[in-house]
Amino acid sequence: MTGILTGIKVVEFAQNAAVPYCGRLLAGMGADVVKVEPLEGDAMRGLAQLAPNEGKAYAVINPGKRGITLDLGSDDAGTVVDALFTWADVALVGFKQPDLLRYRIDDIHARSINSRLIHLTHTPFGPEGPDADVGGYDVLVQGRSGAGFIMNRTENGVPVSTRPAINDFGTGIASALGVVAALRHRDLTGEGQRVDASLLGTALALATPVVNFFEKIDPEAVAQLDEDLKLLQSAGVSFEERRQVYEQRVVPGAGAFRLYFRHYATADGIISVAGLSPGLIRRFHEITGLQTPDRNDPHGAEFNAVVEAADALFRTKTTAEWITKLREASYPCGPYNTPFEAINDEQIRANDFIIDFEHPAFGSYSASGEPIRFGAVPAQKVGPSPGLGQHTREVLAEVGLADNAVDQLIADGVVTSPS
After folding, report:
1. Which of 283, 292, 291, 286 is closest to 331 using CA atoms?
2. 273-302 per-position pLDDT tens digit
3. Within a 10 A sphere around the Cβ of 108, how many other Cβ atoms?
4. Distance between CA atoms of 356 and 219, rounded to whole angstroms?
5. Residue 92's beta-bridge partner residues?
6. Domain identity same for 196 and 59
7. 357 with 323, same domain?
8. CA distance 321 to 316
9. Which residues pair with 274 in a beta bridge?
10. How deeply is 37 buried, as exposed, middle or buried, from its count of CB atoms within 10 A (0-12, 13-18, 19+)?
């Protein structure tokens, strides 16, 4: 079966989630993605292990790829790296800047070998500035971007990292978009180029509605809020209480989110409702019979009373009963699933948003499918994640290394291959 990116060859030098998820998306569109791992494997192989060198996190992030191992620090690794760059249309690289140069996998070296190469370079905090060379992870940009202040739940008065790591996976999506755009540019010009992606840039993009500043209205209010939050912190007021102060003053439409765009407990579970337009707000009150509060005072006594009444009302029926009632009135709503319930949700399965895999080392598993589909090209059915070094011999032969050269690399411990 062919995909929309069939014929595009991708080499991936990256671990963990952000860049590998980009590779996963490209593989799902038909690209031939070769993942290059250290001899001991991607760190994700060790999380929630299912078999030796096989873990849950690795299995769900890396379907559809071929896998090889390579000791990038060895003297002979350069031969393999250069052969892969020559072969590839796209390189996905997730190393700190000093390591890019150390291992000669930086964009300048790569494109000196293959001028048509698209080199996706990932840096946690962006390629410029004082922290350009600093390593980082999703939890760090949750804090630095300001998004965590809104999103993180709390435990013992301290913010807790949001899961799943949405900035990792958002960066994977943004990276795939960048790669496809660069391939289009290459179609037009024949030129390869460097494409930069970062966790911090993604976090700020995802936080667009809450991380912004308007010179016309914000300076005085923000200065006062900053002063008040610091005073509250010095007085020992909890993070959650400080956040509530922030939301009451800053978050647009805070009242609407308390009533019309939220989750409610029902008689047997939880339901999600969503209706922020004037028409849907009117419909909410028609369906529920609740009075319409003054939304200009979203934390006043009247509004609080309506919120309490809504909470009590939704507890009087089951989730299924509320979904039926609300949908009969064309009011947006839906179930609130646990992750395991989502896997078997009829709507999710009907669209192959979750698909099944069969892995030779640990059997069947279910994980995310393709988030987009194309009308002219059927969805690409991808295989499971690769075993450690599973395709080393196969790939190195394809990129031009002779069998005896591969044998020597294995003997010298530069690469590994299952016997």
Report:
1. 283
2. 999 899 999 999 999 999 888 777 777 889
3. 11
4. 52
5. 12, 120
6. yes
7. no
8. 10
9. 261
10. buried
Residue 233 lies in a domain: no
User: Do 177 and 75 fall into the same domain?
Assistant: yes
CB atoms within 10 A of CB 397: 14
Closest CA to 121 of 16, 203, 22: 22
Coil/strand/helix, residue 12: strand
Q: Between 126 and 212, whose confidence is greater?
A: 126
The number of residues in the chain equals: 419
Dihedral sign (CA 342, 199, 202, 377): negative
The tens digit of pLDDT for each residue in 354-392 reads 999 999 999 999 999 999 999 999 877 899 999 999 999
64 part of a folded domain: yes
Q: Which domain holds residue 406?
A: 9-205+351-411
Q: Are residues 30 and 120 in the same domain?
A: yes
307 shares its domain with 398: no
The answer to whether residues 168 and 286 belong to one domain is no
Instruction: Give the residue from 198, 68, 189, 65 showing the smallest Cα distance to 120.
Output: 198
CATH code, 266: 3.30.1540.10
Token pair 């308007």 in the structure block, residue? 214
Total domains in the fold of the chain: 2
Answering whether pTM is above 0.85, one says: yes
Q: Which two tokens stand for residue 107?
A: 């964009």
C-alpha closest to that of 114 among 193, 27, 22, 8: 193
* Residue 95 neighbours by CB distance under 10 Å: 21
